[in-house]
Amino acid sequence: MPLFQLSDNNLTAVAQDDFVDERTLQRLIEKNLKVVFNSRFIATEFRTGQVHAGRIDTLALSEDGNPVIIEYKNVPSSELINQSLYYLAWLRDHHGDFEIAVQKALGSGVEVDWSEIRVICLAPSYKKYDLHAVQVMGANIELWTFRRFANGAIYLEEVFQRSVSETTATLEGKDPVMVAAGKKAALTRALGGWTFEQHLESKPQQIADLAIEIQEFMLALDPTIEEAPKKLYIAYRSSQNIACVEVQQKKILVFLKLDPKQHAGPPGIFRDVSDIGHFGTGDLEVTIKTQADFELAKPFVKLAYDKVGG
Questions:
Q1: 71 DSSP β-pair partners
Q2: For FRET with 153, which of 11, 128, 147, 205 sits at 20 to 30 Å CA-CA?
């Protein structure tokens, strides 16, 4: 899709520009990891030892404490996906090497959550065969494209979306947006170490129903939003977390990626937790006990999605 510059109510097409080389792209992403993927930098060109004989472009730690591998190509190449899967297999068998790298970069007090490893591929485009291959593999891999424009703008888009096979009979009479969201959520839950259903166990029916409604609302915002259940909360994210949901016995806490000093939440049910320890990420806490509370919270959930860059 073309990009247009708006000036005095006139649109001018902005030409695309190329990165000089992959290293330039890599340095840009590494310098802006927090802005783009809300991750902390661990290492660049990380060597995987003499036997494995590889070199991971970028190692990082996500906001949820998960390992992150990022690989880059400045031109379309199937080699990028093969390399990424090669490094994913290595990292699964070398937890200690990664944890040592984390301690060197961030300090000894940082814990690593191995329930998930994010693998991010960045390339200008992918062939249809590559997209199909990754889908068939079912690996936890994210395919992102990038565009650089002559006016200095950079556009990133996640182009690979996992899907779950479902019969035609199951789809009849259902909202296609919610069907797609449900399929994506089902696969996300299947691939993770924790499930959405585990967070509903032993909870009152009213709270469970509210949690399901929050889930449906979050996933319907955008097909690219992923549900990532953790041990103590459920994260909803695109390139980074938008909201973290903590399901309790009498209430649901939703931590939104909003600055409470700039955006006050729904009156009476929000709190600034930027200086208060809590599970998950997000500085604006919203307490939801009833359907009415959630209706008040919806515009702020949408605002958090917009602010993250949805």
A1: 121
A2: 128
89, pLDDT greater than 50 = yes
pLDDT at res. 171 = 39
DSSP state for residue 249 in the 8-state scheme: S
Q: Tell me the C-alpha distance between 302 and 259, whole Å.
A: 14
Residue 284 structure tokens: 């604006």
DSSP 8-state assignment for residue 61 = E
Rounded Cα–Cα distance for residues 240 and 168 (Å): 33
pLDDT given at position 32: 95
User: Pick from 293, 224, 225: which is nearest to 254 by CA?
Assistant: 293
What is the distance of C-alpha 282 from the center of its chain? Answer: 14
CATH code of the region 16-158: 3.40.91
β-pair partners for 270: 286
pTM of the model: 0.67
Query: For position 72, what pLDDT does the model report?
Result: 95
Distance separating the N- and C-terminal Cα atoms of the chain: 16
- Residue 77 pLDDT level (bands cut at 50, 70, 90): confident
Provide mean pLDDT across the span 208-228. Answer: 90
What is residue 15's DSSP assignment? P
Q: Which residues contact 66 (CB under 8 A, 6 or more apart)?
A: 112, 113, 114, 115, 116, 117, 118
CA-closest candidate to residue 197, choices 217, 183, 211: 211
- DSSP per position, 169-192: HHHTTS-HHHHHHHHHHHHHHHHS
**All structural domains of the chain with their residue ranges:** 16-158, 168-308
Assigned token pair, 134: 């990754």
Quick count: other Cβ atoms within 10 Å of Cβ 40?
A: 17
Which CATH fold would you assign to the domain 168-308?
Aspartate Aminotransferase, domain 1 (3.90.1150)
Could you tell me which of 299, 275, 270 has the C-alpha nearest to residue 285?
A: 270
DSSP class per residue in 273-305: -TTS--SSS-SEEEEE-SHHHHHHHHHHHHHHH
